[in-house]
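Chapter review: from sequence to fold.
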Amino acid sequence: MKQPSQQNRPNRARKRPNASGILIRTAALDDARSIAEIYNQGIEDRVATFETKLRSAEDQQAWLRSNAGRYPAVVAHFDGEIIGWAGAGPYRHRECYRGIGEFSMYVRRDWRGRGVGDLLVAGLISEAERLGLWKLLSRIFPFNEASRALCRKHGFREVGVYEKHARLDGEWLDVVIVERLISSKLNAVSL
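The token string follows.
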């Protein structure tokens, strides 16, 4: 349920085109197939997630439904195609953490390095603020310099490293923890 301060605020991520013609908008259930395809590229490339099981459109629809109205999900749209997505879900399921979103962001292979991630992170932050979150966080492989730089650009700070967090293809990998406070929400939070 939306907080009273959120009920009449416009959805700033709904439609926000940029100069290059890329539109950032809130993800819809119909986007699930494209989201799954892009996520599967990230899984296959082994640079951004410990996941190894490919996702289906049904998996991504279930994820979108479970987070709808509470956690942000945005897509980058260009010329009729989804070229990237970013979304957050619960950090932990305890009530005291309901204003923290743990996020992921994936860009289609042929669009990487072209500014799509920059637009997605900006849209995700905007949606997180609209939904009343006070913090976004994520874990990034130390060797994923592009994601780390993108997060720094958007005001995330690196707060530590989880050593040997999990195995990927039999190898232990560390992750860098990043967080960004959404300052407009810190004084307005009421649980």
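Two observations follow directly from the output. The chain has one domain: 16-186. The chain has five helices and eight strands.
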